[in-house]
Amino acid sequence: MDFITHLINGISLGSVYAIIALGYTMVYGIAKMLNFAHGDVIMVGSYIIFLLMSNVGVPAIPAVIISIIVCTTLGIVIEKIAYKPLRRATSLAVLITAIGVSYFLQNSSLLLFGSDPKVFSSVVNLPSIKLANGMINISSTTIVTVVVCILIMIALTLFIKKTKAGQAMLAVSEDKDAASLMGINANATISLTFAIGSGLAAIAGALFCSAYPSLSPYTGAMPGIKAFTAAVFGGIGSIPGALLGGILLGVIEILGRAYISSQLSDAIVFAVLIIVLLVRPTGILGKKLHEKV
Amino acid sequence: MKNFFTNMKKSTKNHLITYAGIIVAYAIMQILCGTGVASNLIKGLLVPICVYSIVAIGLNLCVGILGELSLGHAGFMCIGAFTGALATKLLYDYIPSKILMFLIALVIGTFFAALFGFLIGIPVLRLKGDYLAIVTLAFGQIIINIINVLYIGKDEAGLHFAFSNPNAINMNEETGVWLINGAKGITKIPSISNFTIGVILLIVSLFIVYHLVDSRTGRAIMAIRDNRIAAESVGINITKYKMLAFTISAAIAGAGGVLYSHNLSTLTATTNNFGYNMSIMILVYVVLGGMGSFRGSIIATVILYMLPELLRGLSDYRMLFYAIILIGLMLFNWSPKAIVWRQKVLSLLPFGKKGEKGKVE
């Protein structure tokens, strides 16, 4: 029975990773850059929810919605100021800029909110569910996280398959120049991708901090790195890959912590990642790369 | 043929300028320290600057010359630091000279970093681009994680090892000494590194990489970077040269780690000093200094490492300014508009155009 509880917790943590990984994977797919500041957008979103709920007294749902709006705007602004001028530069230059943005967000939060960890009150206030005569106790946050993740996946897949903007995103990720020639506004599409990714980061922040309620300016860094790992694990650039990678990573982390060693859970996660990449060098669902001379 | 010799001369001249720059900087710092002008704060920065310059040179060999992005070099630094410090802890009482002791620690630390670089390189170098980056990052994290659960103790019966559980070590509690105590790391390391040793190590590392890059091997490595398929088709053994460059790069990072650990009395492995944060910080030095330019790496390390200290007057705002300067520098350096603007300004100035791209300085 313990195993089932751990498994469910793992799926829940994995769902959060999957939502964050979506942000990484979409931005990577379309702009071919690793957005290292993504994890810090999560932290900013969580601080906004925290301030709105505990200082202003806004209820949970409106607070999350405001946080999504702020993070979306933040994502677009970051893209416009820091990344857009470097569209044609080497990917490493953009990577370093993203690191600069990450430092900027962390340190401005440090100045604004202080370094002491805040206790984040859960945005989900529902009773927990007991199964099998109370032997399995699932918190409401866990269930809401998994449900939200599934809803986001469905919505995003529909968005990309059915809408013009979604098709434009696919086209730009396939070949930016050809897409531009077909009349797609590549810059607007890239901005839209950043906006969606950052909005998702706000949701992920709310869910992550509901499950792990300590919030500090460095909260976003580790889930960010893990989610990035999840995106690579599933095959970077692939949306189902982000879901699969995120959930597998979450389950491995929780089960590893429970059954092997709590201190080594990170090492186990990364070791599995390495093994997977050795067998499938572009991730589980990644496309095979063909070399051209 | 004539052209060839003038080129040779130019690169040698360039290298000599770098060595001379380091020696002049060293002499100035020694005078400042001797006359008491330099504050203790500045004195405390000297060895770390040497450490990070050395690691930056190692990483530049991997990123700039081999063309593979590694986010795990702090992990190699960690291995060098821990194995080197462990050697010193074990042998310090038997070795009479501090210099000799440091040399032994250096050899051991560098050897183990190279060994791990080689072992990790076998699987990692099969991957490409961002996949390689994430796997090196993963290895770096695994190394830290494992060191944090490693316990090594010593008593009259010899060495004792334990993994993740310090109570299982089976060591004589009264006479035994902890060498590595899990997350508490290695304590009471004899302080045998100093600025002079750091500068000598820096010059030796530079000498090694310059000679490597100028040799036939170095040209093969750069050929792989520029066009792997073309290099393969003219008969260059891709795996061999990639492994060679990666291993040397890891070894240099390990040497930096040895210097680092002997400058501290307590050595612990955390994400900030050996994790991806550190790997990224060193990558920033390398990229801002110019990929493939070892002189640039050193200059960028010195400036960027001093910058937060010089901004100390801004107290809480200093890291914020650091971030803004970093973003600003990247935009100024790489944005097409800024490049056009720079060329315009430069063409107005009397002296000639800037140096060509891709040259090893």
- Which term fits the overall shape of chain B? globular
**Largest sheet strand order of chain B:** 2-1-3
Give the helix proportion of chain A (percent range). over 70%
How many separate domains make up the residues of chain A? 1
Helix-strand category of chain A: mainly alpha
CATH topology description of the largest domain in chain B: ABC transporter involved in vitamin B12 uptake, BtuC
Q: Estimate percent helicity of chain B.
A: 55-70%
| Percent of sequence in beta strands of chain B | under 5%
Percent of residues of chain A in beta strands?
Answer: under 5%
Number of folding domains of chain B? Answer: 2
Largest interface, C-beta closer than 8 angstroms, per-chain residues = A-B, 46 and 47 residues
**How far from one another are the termini of chain B?**
22 Å
Major sheet description of chain A: 2 strands, antiparallel
Spatial order of strands in the largest sheet of chain A: 1-4
Would you tell me the overall average pLDDT of chain B? 85
Low-pLDDT segments, ≥5 res of chain B? 353-361
Provide a descriptive summary of the structure in words:
The complex is a heterodimer of chains A (293) and B (361). Chain A is built from 11 helices and 4 strands. Chain A has 293 residues and is mainly alpha-helical. Chain A has one domain. In chain A, strand 2 and strand 3 form a beta hairpin. Chain A is globular, with a radius of gyration of 19 Å. Chain B is mainly α and 361 residues long. Chain B folds into 2 domains: 1-38; 45-318, ABC transporter involved in vitamin B12 uptake, BtuC. The longest helix of chain B has 34 residues, at 2-35. Chain B is globular and about 75 Å long.
